[in-house]
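Q: Given only this backbone (387 positions), what sequence would you predict?
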């Protein structure tokens, strides 16, 4: 048990919470959990952040926060093959011992493997359990044997842990309810928090109005390659147009090769993982989110909070947050021509741009951290039978 973040005493709220994830890389769900943990401490909750893998990339975010950090290092950085059931059972046994020692009142799980490995163990240790569904999982519908195996583990974990289900958006809740053959009312919709002290607009106009920014892990579903095609189209009409891509992942080498082939080396910049994303947003004139699906797209919400007009694909999850011509522009999936046209329109139509920025800022205020954190605390109190 490793607690390097416990330099200040906890307030006594009568609630010991274990927030559990497989690891803590820089990504959407992990960032949400870090923000939530910090805010829960300010409400007097004794928060234990339990990370099953050794990776932890939020030292600066959680330093001096009062969050108890447990880096269990029970799994390697690489994925564990499903057939290594000896390894999976070893993780479950060690998590069982951990939860019996910690004795949390509530264990809140995020991402599939944390629930599969630790849900039943936490429940057996006497904790009430919750699981947040952060997005649409392709393996729920796929018919290959790894997907079928995951579905079996998932349904078993929900049953054995007796967990309450939370979904980050109406689309996610509807999708899960359909797949699990249950009443949608049994899945609570609980939005993610956004720290508006970090994500806020610049005082002045952006210094690079024709800079476009994309933020996210470089997976195929993020459709960053569509952004490169759109930038190629924009380059013919806008000499100052550039694209900054923040994030890393398996698509990076392919995107670098595509940028060379499209002769975009001087216009497309793959910045990798960054810790100064709010500042980067505030330098740009437009943000793109071109994913094939989302749960609750934090990158879109962060762009809105930073006062950046958004062009996003009209897809599952994203359309729960983005209203066309109210707080962003929606375009068809995999249509670089539409992305380029919408972006050009934003550059040329100042009243539209101002209207979308105002709409985005109004949307972001609904997700302010303290408001969302109190909603989470209400879920925990309800699970414990408290008012």
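A: Predicted residues:
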């Amino acid at each position: 048990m490793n607690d390097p973040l416990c330099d200040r005493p906890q307030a006594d709220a009568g609630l010991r919470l274990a927030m559990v994830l497989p690891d803590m890389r820089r990504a959407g769900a992990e960032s949400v959990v870090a923000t939530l943990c910090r805010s829960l401490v300010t409400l007097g909750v004794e928060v234990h952040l339990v990370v099953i893998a050794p990776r932890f990339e939020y030292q600066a975010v959680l330093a001096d926060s009062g969050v108890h950090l447990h880096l269990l290092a029970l799994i390697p950085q690489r994925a564990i093959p499903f057939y290594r059931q000896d390894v999976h059972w070893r993780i479950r046994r060690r998590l069982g011992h951990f939860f019996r020692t910690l004795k949390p009142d509530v264990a809140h799980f995020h991402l599939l493997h944390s629930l599969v490995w630790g849900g039943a163990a936490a429940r057996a240790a006497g904790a009430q359990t919750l699981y947040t569904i952060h997005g649409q999982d392709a393996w729920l519908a796929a018919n290959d044997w790894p997907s079928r195996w995951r579905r079996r583990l998932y349904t078993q974990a929900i049953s054995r842990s007796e967990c309450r289900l939370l979904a980050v958006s109406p689309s996610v809740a509807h999708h899960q309810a359909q797949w699990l053959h249950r009443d949608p009312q049994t899945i609570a919709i609980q939005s993610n928090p956004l720290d508006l002290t970090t994500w806020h607009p610049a005082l002045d106009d952006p210094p690079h109005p024709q800079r476009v920014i994309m933020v996210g892990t470089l997976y195929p579903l993020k459709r960053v390659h569509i952004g490169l095609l759109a930038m190629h189209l924009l380059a013919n009409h806008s000499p100052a147009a550039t694209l900054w891509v923040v994030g890393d992942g398996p698509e990076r080498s392919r995107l670098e090769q595509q940028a060379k082939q499209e002769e975009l080396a001087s216009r497309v910049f793959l910045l990798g993982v960054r810790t100064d994303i709010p500042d980067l947003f505030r330098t740009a004139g437009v943000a793109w989110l071109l994913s094939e699906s989302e749960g609750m797209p934090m990158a879109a919400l962060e762009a809105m909070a930073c006062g950046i007009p958004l062009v996003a694909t009209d897809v599952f999850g994203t359309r729960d947050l983005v209203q066309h011509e109210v707080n962003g522009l929606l375009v068809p999936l995999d249509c670089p021509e539409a992305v380029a046209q919408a972006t050009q329109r934003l550059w040329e139509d100042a009243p539209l741009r101002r209207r979308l920025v105002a709409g985005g800022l109004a949307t972001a205020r609904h997700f302010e951290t303290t408001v969302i954190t109190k909603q989470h605390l209400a879920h925990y109190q309800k699970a414990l039978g408290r008012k």
